[in-house]
Amino acid sequence: AGSGAGSDMRTEISTAAAFVTRLLRAAGGVGEEQLRCFRECLQEAMREHYRHHWFPLVPSKGSGYRCIRINHKMDPLIGKAAEMIGLSHERLFQLLPSELTLWVDPFEVSYRIGEDGSICVLYESPQPGGKATKQLESRNSCKEEWRTGRSSPSKSYNMMTVSS
Fold first, then answer.
1. pTM for the full predicted model
2. Domains and CATH numbers, the chain
């Protein structure tokens, strides 16, 4: 890799893996050692998966390939990392939101919980490889959303049945 294409995606990958790990931690029942291992396995799987699909000069190129998705099917990268720590797909579906989309692109990592949720940015960096990267920890607008999204996968169904 010329100008370290691999190192360029390190921050984006670690941000995304840390986010999924935080969702698992918040759900409870998974030990810290397992979580650490899960995070490392997920990062490794993502690095491998994105190796030839990372284009800092055209950040949106390959975005669909790098999109991590849970939507009644477990994303294979998350599934692979979970297998390494002995978590079944069934258990993952209990622990993680039933609908999660995570976009891992050069200079930006964002996510959406639920099909109609708002898109929240986890990490953003100026494009030309500038050093002024800012980790967005003050994402209060979205913090509540991933908490509430976690516990209410059936909310939309309830509203439909109640309206009879």
1. 0.76
2. 9-124 (3.90.640.90)
